[in-house]
Design goal:
The protein is an alpha/beta fold. The chain has 11 helices and 8 strands. It is globular and about 45 Å long. It binds phosphoenolpyruvate. The site of phosphoenolpyruvate has 13 residues, from β8.
C-alpha cells in the first residue's frame, strides 16, 4: 500500500516572515494527519529556516533544483551535498518551468536523478507535455521519452530512490487541472511502462499528479488508484488551502 505524499513547491515565493507562518501552520495543522507524508520545497536561501523550524517535526523539506556537480566553478548553482547539509531529504528535478527556459533537458535530468540518489537525496522527477503536445495527442510519447531518459541513465531499479510526478504544462498555474480521469490514465500508463520492466517497483513507486491542485479538486484526484499524491504550487502559498489538500491525502 503506497502512502499518499503531498509536496509544496513554493517556487520563488515567500520571505522569512511568511515562510515562518506557513511552516509553523503546517506543523500544527498536520498533527493528526499521520496517514500521509508531507514535504516543503523552498527557495535555497530559506533552507536554513526550513531546517530550523521543521527539524523536530514529521514534515520533510527539500530544494527546487540541484547541480550535477558537488563543487567547483558553477556560479549560481547548488550542490547535492549543500542540500544535504541543510537537512534536505528531497529535491525537485526537471520542473517544466526550468525545462521550458532551457535549463533542464532530458539528458541533464537523467544525470541529476542519478547524482541525487547517489548523494542520498530523493529526487521528485517532473514529466509532462505542453498544451500543443496534449492537443496533438502526444502525452504518452512525451512523458515516456522524459521517463526513459532517467531509466537510460540509472536503470529501472534506480527509480526506486525517487518520486515521479506527472505535471502537464498546460495545467501548471493555470487553474485548469487535468481531470482526475486524464491524470489517472497517464499515471496508469507510466506505471504500466515501469511494470513491464519491474513489476514490484511499479507497485511500490509513488507517482504524483501536479497542476492546479487545490482544496476543491484534491479529494477526487486522490481517490484515483494510481495517483499517490500531489505536487502543489500556487495552493501551497495559502496555509489553509494547502492544509485542506493535506487533509484530503490523509483521508484518501
Ligand atoms: C508546480 O509548479 O509544480 C505546480 C503544480 O504548480 P500549480 O499547483 O500552481 O499548478
Amino acid at each position: 500500500m503506497r502512502r499518499k505524499l503531498v509536496v509544496a513547491n513554493r517556487k520563488m515565493n515567500g520571505n522569512l516572515q511568511t515562510n515562518k507562518a506557513f511552516l509553523e501552520g503546517l506543523i500544527t495543522g498536520t498533527r493528526g494527519y499521520s496517514n500521509a507524508d508531507y514535504v516543503v520545497c523552498v527557495p535555497h536561501p530559506y533552507l536554513f529556516q526550513a531546517q530550523a523550524i521543521l527539524k523536530d517535526s514529521s514534515i520533510a523539506w527539500g530544494g527546487q533544483n540541484m547541480s550535477r556537480y558537488q563543487s567547483g566553478a558553477y556560479t549560481g548553482s547548488v550542490s547535492p551535498n549543500m542540500l544535504i547539509e541543510f537537512g534536505c531529504e528531497y529535491v525537485i528535478i526537471g520542473h517544466s518551468e526550468r525545462r521550458q527556459r532551457g535549463f533542464d533537458t532530458d539528458l541533464s535530468t537523467g544525470e541529476r536523478f542519478e547524482v541525487a540518489t547517489k548523494a542520498g537525496l530523493k529526487p521528485i522527477f517532473c514529466m509532462g507535455e505542453t498544451l500543443a503536445e496534449y492537443e496533438e495527442g502526444l502525452t504518452d510519447i512525451v512523458t515516456i521519452r522524459q521517463l526513459n531518459a532517467v531509466i537510460h541513465e540509472i536503470g529501472v531499479l534506480g527509480l526506486s530512490g525517487g518520486i515521479l510526478a506527472y505535471e502537464p504544462v498546460w495545467a501548471i498555474g493555470t487553474g485548469k487541472a487535468a481531470t482526475p480521469e486524464h491524470a489517472q490514465n497517464v499515471l496508469s500508463f507510466l506505471r504500466g511502462h515501469i511494470e513491464i520492466l519491474d513489476a514490484e517497483l511499479a507497485q511500490n513507486i509513488r507517482i504524483l499528479y501536479g497542476g492546479s491542485v487545490n482544496a476543491t479538486n484534491a479529494a477526487k484526484l486522490f481517490s484515483m488508484p494510481d495517483i499517490d499524491g500531489a505536487l502543489v504550487g500556487g495552493a501551497s502559498l495559502n496555509t489553509d488551502e494547502f492544509l485542506a489538500i493535506c487533509r484530503a491525502a490523509n483521508n484518501a
